[in-house]
Design brief:
The chain is an alpha+beta fold and 211 residues long. 51% of the residues lie in helices and 7% in strands. It has a 4-stranded mixed beta sheet with strand order 2-1-3-4, with helices on one face. Strand 3 and strand 4 form a beta hairpin. Helix 1 packs across helix 7 and helix 7 crosses helix 8. Bound molecules: glutathione. Glutathione (GSH) binds next to helix 1, helix 3 and helix 5.
């Protein structure tokens, strides 16, 4: 497997955790999202992913897969153990809901493309952009904090897809200095996950393109 990734990309971080957790070997193809206006915008990467985003996973058969949650579902179907989704349909839906709360409702508002648009096209000051970032993380985390029922992980005593979404978002929140004191359950889940080798190996600092 080949993973087009950027060390700080939280969507790629999700997929790195899934690959590690399931023990699937992969090579990293780094795509710098910032240098020279973003190497993801080069024609050679656009030919791989017309959306010009990471992650992209290329399977040994040459299939090109995009969108982190879809890629993780593919990994779950092809490498069912250890499972990232519970078998019970209600429990599965709850796990997916927490994963999507982060991946669909927090992350897109704070992604590099929209933030750049706020700055370059809408002419917003950095302080206004930081306030926007904090606002949407805090709104999402308030809901998540209420939805986490019991630890040590987001949905109980097993790692699930929900944790793969949460941990990269916590990393981003810390990097952008969002205060997390109001979210003890989220901080606890993050700590429990980071104690696992699969999560530790996936962290941005441990990537070949880390700066
Ligand atoms: N929904 C997508 C989001 C992918 C995404 O937006 N990736 C970001 C990095 S976290 C990216 O490549 N951004 C480049 C850009 O917007 O120019 C997923 O989950 O894979």
């Amino acid at each position: 497997m080949k993973l087009y990734s950027y060390f700080r990309s939280s969507a790629a971080y999700r997929v790195r955790i899934a690959l590690n957790y399931k023990g699937i070997a992969y090579e990293t193809a780094p795509i710098h999202l910032v240098k020279d206006g973003g190497h993801n915008r080069r024609p050679e990467f656009r030919a791989i992913n017309p959306q010009m985003r990471v992650p992209v996973l290329v399977t040994p058969a040459g299939d090109v897969l995009i969108q982190s949650l879809a890629i993780i579902e593919y990994l779950e179907e092809t490498h069912p153990e250890p499972a990232l989704l519970p078998k019970d349909p209600i429990a599965r839906t709850k796990v997916r809901a927490l994963a999507e709360l982060v991946a669909c409702d927090i992350h897109p508002l704070n992604n590099i493309g929209p933030l750049r648009y706020l700055k370059n096209t809408m002419g917003q000051e950095q302080s206004a952009i930081d306030a926007w970032y904090h606002h949407w993380v805090v709104a999402g985390f308030e809901a998540l904090e209420a939805l986490i029922e019991r630890g040590p992980y987001s949905c109980g005593d097993r790692v699930t897809l929900a944790d793969l979404s949460l941990v990269p978002q916590v990393y981003n929140a810390r990097r952008l200095k969002v205060p997390l004191e109001k979210f003890p359950k989220i901080v606890g889940v993050d700590a429990a996950c980071m104690a696992l080798a699969a999560f530790d190996r996936a962290r941005p600092e441990n990537q070949p393109d880390a700066e």
